[in-house]
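User: What would this chain look like folded?
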Amino acid sequence: MFTGGGPVWESLVSAGVRVGVIGAGGRMGSTVCAAVSNASDMELVAAVDPAAAGTPAIPGGPTIVADLDALADARAEIAVDFTVAGAAVANAKRCAEMGLHVVIGTTGIGDAELRELRAAFPGDGLGCVVAPNFAIGAVLMMRFAEIAAPWFETAEIIELHHDSKIDAPSGTAMRTAERMAAVSSEWAADPTKVHTLPEARGGSGPAGIRIHSVRLRGLVAHQEVLLGTTGQTLSIRHDSYDRESFMPGVLLAVREVANRPGLTVGLDSLLGL
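Assistant: Here's the prediction, encoded as structure tokens.
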């Protein structure tokens, strides 16, 4: 029995899906711990983070430990991972070996990592949900941009994040560009001939759609898609001002992952989009 929270933690929680959080000491991980604990249909039974081992995940909750084996010891059913891309894939493989469903919110997961996850979750029972952004408004923003793309010849994406984000561009920006490129191949060429300042035009993403990354203190997660055609422009913007904005999407994924064997990328199908 896992008793990391002090006096027999399992006796303190009500019936519900048993959830462990990996990366529990980070800003997103700690927010997830609180959200899971507050959900009436979930139990926070384990918290893993080598950098924060020995501290409580939440007041009165389980103590954070360093070893993933704590998930099995606590009889967790679902693991939620908010770490870094390389660690998240390795963690997911280990969770699959332990028979756990996995929800991954870590950014920077590319095609190679997704192939590894598909191999680890081949669709024979266990599910894995990977989402570049758990804010439901951001998912809708990507869908709206996808709908609009065929009606415009030019588009650029500006993503803005806090100053601790280590990857650029964001997974949300890349996924947005991929979806826009998939529905329209008619994009005008970049007219720029002279670069007074190198890289001033941002990075060239799928179909040549330019992506610009901003990193500033005070921001959380923001993205604007700008589309233009003759005589008109369209701006589609989403702003997350607090990490709480991601929690409804995270909890949705936790509730749905067991019903979706194999790998699911994005929240779209969970939302019926």
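The radius of gyration is 20 Å. If you want, I can go into more detail on any region.
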